[in-house]
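Incident review: delayed structure delivery

Summary: a single-chain prediction request sat in the queue longer than the usual turnaround. Root cause was a stuck worker, restarted by the on-call engineer. No data loss occurred. The affected request and its eventual output are reproduced below so the record is complete for anyone auditing the incident later.

Affected input:
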Amino acid sequence: MTGRPGIHHMRSPVSYPNQRVGIFVDVQNLYHSAKNLYHGRVNYEELIKYLTGDRQLIRAMAYVVKSEGIVDIPATRAGSATGANAAADASAESSFFGALEKAGLELRMKDLQVWADGAKKADWDVGMAVDAIRMSSFLDVIILVTGDGDFLPLIDYLKWGGGRMVEVAAFRRSASAKLQEAADRFVGIEDVPRAVMKIRMKK
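Output delivered after worker restart:
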């Protein structure tokens, strides 16, 4: 089937009001894609509403890493580490997490790991995959909100091993092409009305 990129012809023909939906959001992946591609932020409330449609939303999970840089720090403060600035940054991060919860997401958090050589580890790939598999027993549709190609084995397992429908929502330009192909339905977040809010750039 061919057609222009968009969300309308991507809708799965098999969508029923009694389908139980679970949404799993890779917040880091979305945050950086929205910022780098569109200088914006994701409006999670609108996105979740759109992805759920007229189906039953059972669980909506957001995976975040504390202090990973998902709040914007003005350039004038970059590199500055005063107590007041640190407190303000923590407050901004807390507000961001609060907005996620207000959108109806259950937060799963972990601290950023920094190794002795300065390397940082900040991902929820395994935890998100385990949760999706564990919860698939009471879900009909699993929606993965990420463009990360590392989730391909999870999609294959849920579809062919679990018999579940798997949908993926991500920014098309930063999403793995194989991930888009593997999903039963792919939604380009940039096409969802009101799903991306512009960031006011601070000088």
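Verification: The chain has one domain: 20-198.
Action items: add queue-age alerting; document worker restart procedure.
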